[in-house]
Amino acid sequence: MRILILGADGYLGWPTAMYFAANGHEVLAVDNYLRRRLARETMSEALLEAPNLQRRAEIFQSLSGHHVDVEILDCTDYRRLSQLFEQFKPEAAIHYAEQPAAPYGMLKWSEASLTLNNNLNATLNLIWAVMEHAPECRIVKLGTMGEYGTPNIDIEEGWLEVEHKGRKQKFLYPRQTGSLYHTTKILDTDLLWFYVRTFGIAVTDLMQGPVYGITTPEADLDDALLPNFHYDDIFGTVLNRFLVQAVAGIPLTVYGKGEQSRGFLDIRDTIRCVELSVLSPAEPGQLRIMNQFTETFSMNKLANRVQRVGNGMGLNVSIDHIDNPRKEPEDHYYNPAHTALLDLGLDPHYLTDEGVATMLEKVLEYRDRIDRTRILPRVRWKQGLSS
Amino acid sequence: MRILILGADGYLGWPTAMYFAANGHEVLAVDNYLRRRLARETMSEALLEAPNLQRRAEIFQSLSGHHVDVEILDCTDYRRLSQLFEQFKPEAAIHYAEQPAAPYGMLKWSEASLTLNNNLNATLNLIWAVMEHAPECRIVKLGTMGEYGTPNIDIEEGWLEVEHKGRKQKFLYPRQTGSLYHTTKILDTDLLWFYVRTFGIAVTDLMQGPVYGITTPEADLDDALLPNFHYDDIFGTVLNRFLVQAVAGIPLTVYGKGEQSRGFLDIRDTIRCVELSVLSPAEPGQLRIMNQFTETFSMNKLANRVQRVGNGMGLNVSIDHIDNPRKEPEDHYYNPAHTALLDLGLDPHYLTDEGVATMLEKVLEYRDRIDRTRILPRVRWKQGLSS
Question: Which residues, other chains included, contact A87 with Cβ-Cβ below 8 Å and sequence gap of 6+?
């Protein structure tokens, strides 16, 4: 299949591009390096300096024989995006092309505005490029479990049948979340749903939990092919940050009480979920929403796990409960459904002590590159008002 | 009070500006004439060519003695908007500054993009200008009853208590609507709610139904002060369009079966609702949502009323059911709550035969100005794909 990957320079985008190429698809990888620029501006560079996309594609081809085509393009530029659709005629478009850091979007007006405009325009432009130039193209969009927040009722997969005063209506599951970034993902879902039901495009919206991991079969070919591993407070996800803290001998920083629960998954499962969504696509006129995680942990459980495994490896790991920089419930009900991807054939890589040890060993190889100043929270949710 | 009116050149903005000035407030009227430009580009000019804002303010002052300050400014320009907040320090900001035409946003990518970007950036910028420069300022935002769409359960005022598997959660009422323009209003509400609950700003979001009417006490001082009366298929609201069709001797065009129901209100009630929202403001940290309409009618009932009154005045009014250019249910359950504004003191102007006759007489004065080519639907919801 002809597969377009938007945001292909990202933590998930690049491993996804290699995977589809290795599995015989024709892959066009698109990015504008926005995340790299923002990470540099906020002193949040990844653990490893990844070569640019073209260079990574060359290295990957020389080692594997598989080709990834690269185009440097800003998805908020509709003229260029629609030209690309006209030429490449993708059969599937995987949409990772969003500003991905919740703390970044909470900085000030300019970062909030960039997050809102980048994310919504990328989504709107993708919708229109599909409608105008590739109406058969199936869209696979990365949403987030964060869209749901932490309601006091079970979280279903995308939809909720409501009974009210003796009558019934099925709605998009009501969403309310903890950051502007997550809010843009809610807006994306509403936007997609409008065009899906009005114009009959086919969309899968994957509500993904925090991802962890650094290795995939393709990335393991060479260090230059590893995913961009962010471990800082702005662009890093929580388990990756804990791993780096354990290796660096810094206490694992748990925000507040630590009873916040989230649904997690291994980066290899992200890629498999996206593949399943492409190969068993949504129907025209269907917004298919699937909750993409494999198991839930509280932050305390996750920190304890890293501590236990790290200490078993001779690291000296402690845990610090610090003042929560975010505004979020620290102890809440959490029971999200997640059967749709298992039904499609997902065979999860659950988090094991061996898995944690493997990731710690990988991070240990790059111990010298850890910048200890970027691990404690630098962004507070109230900051927008305080200065 | 110091009252800022964003979108003050609009059908509702200008009468609101005059009303607050006439009632002793210090009014700053802001607009960038976007609606005029779009109306001109789509051959949808209003029935009367209104003088520009400064000129209208001069005429109003010469006739009434009341002053309206005017600033020509694009609310999507954050630098200028925040400077204005710094200088004027508004105590209330009334936000009408959005691209208001549903059919316009359904034209093509460029109109969809303009609608999305104008409306969301105006809202985001207003939120930040308040947070940074006037945190005590109460925001009164015009939403739309259209945000709710036509669910098969009762529509409550903004919020819904959901019981699911034995547990309960109060959510923003789930929204799903019929056009991109209406969808941007849903996104506005989500955006406002995020900043309200995270940063404690005070917002009233008014879910308004279609407005009708051409006269207010201030507008009646001079024809140059009348609201911009759009009667075309793109910028006109339905009852105003029926009035013009009746006067022009064109059959009233009912879309489809005509059993679509909506909640309507008189333009004088819009202004009073906004005043009530300013004078009895939301609390800090509260998103207060009120459903702003006074009575519901189906399109058939409305057309029949105009026909009866028009025929009584010697007009020869017929009704034509035409193919529905929109994608919407034409026969549906509709039971929206609307008590909050009545509780605050709204005393509605209900639609009477005398009221319809008065409006018809006003339109008759301008009979020669009616452009008959812009009354039939020129925009079809599927158009984006068909050409």
Answer: none
Of A152, A175, A191, the CB nearest to B183: A191
For chain B, what is the radius of gyration of the CA atoms? 20
Q: Is B355 touching A (CB cutoff 8 A)? A: no
Closest Cα in chain B, distance from residue A197 (Å): 9
The answer for residues whose C-beta is within 8 angstroms of residue B37's C-beta and 6 or more apart is: none
The Cα–Cα gap between A288 and B325 comes to 27
Q: What is the DSSP string of A253-274?
A: EEETTSB-EEEEEEHHHHHHHH
Which helix (H) or strand (E) is B252 found in, with range? strand B252-255
Mean pLDDT, rounded, for A21-35: 98
The pLDDT, as a whole number, for residue A384 is 43
B301 classed as catalytic: no
Mean pLDDT of the region B136-161: 98
Angle at A295 between CA A292 and CA A298, to 5 degrees: 115
Of A120, A153, A199, the CB nearest to B120: A120
Q: Residue B217 — φ and ψ, nearest 5°?
A: -55, -40
Can you tell me the distance from the alpha carbon of B49 to that of A257, in angstroms, rounded to the nearest whole number? 62
Cα A382 off chain centre by: 24
B181 is catalytic: yes
Query: Range with the lowest mean pLDDT among A283-287, A369-373, B11-15, B250-254?
Result: A369-373
Helices (H), B162-213: 180-199
- Render pLDDT for A94-109 as a digit per residue (tens, 0 to 9): 999 999 999 999 999 9
DSSP A101-167: -HHHHTS-HHHHHHHHHHHHHHHHHHHHHHHHH-TTPEEEEEEEGGGG---SS-B-SSEEEEEETTE
Q: What is the DSSP letter of A368?
A: G
Residues of B within 8 A of A113 (CB-CB) are: 78, 121, 124-125
* Cα B194 from Cα A326, distance rounded (Å): 13
The pLDDT > 70 percentage for chain B reads 99
> Strand B211-212 to strand B261-266: parallel, antiparallel, or no bridges (unpaired)?
parallel
The distance of B78 to chain A (nearest Cα, Å) reads 9
Q: Do A121 and B116 lie within an 8 Å CB cutoff?
A: yes
> For chains A and B, what is the number of CB pairs under 8 angstroms?
133
* Residue of B144, B183, B253, B294 with catalytic role: B144
Q: Say if the Cβ atoms of B128 and A112 lie within 8 Å.
A: yes
Strand order in the sheet with A68-72: A68-72, A26-31, A2-6, A92-95, A138-144, A203-208, A287-292
Q: What is the DSSP string of B112-131?
A: HHHHHHHHHHHHHHHHHHHH
pTM greater than 0.95: yes
Query: What's the CA dihedral at A49, A54, A56, A57 to 10 degrees?
Result: 170
Inter-residue contact A226 to A369 (CB < 8 Å): no
Residues 85-104 of B with CB under 8 A from A: none
Q: Which of residues 51-90 of A touch B (CB under 8 A)?
A: 78, 82
Q: What is this model's ipTM?
A: 0.96
Across the interface, whether the CB atoms of A169 and B151 are under 8 A apart is answered: yes
Does the structure show a pLDDT above 90 at B375? no
CB-based contacts of B209: which residues, under 8 Å, 6+ apart?
A: B144, B145, B262, B263, B264, B265, B292, B293, B296
Q: Shortest Cα distance from A131 to chain B (angstroms)?
A: 6
Which residues in chain B are closer than 8 Å to A382, comparing Cβ atoms?
A: 199
Cα first-last separation, chain A: 51
Tokens 């009323």 found at? B305
Nearest neighbour of B172 by CB, restricted to A128, A174, A333? A174
DSSP B259: B
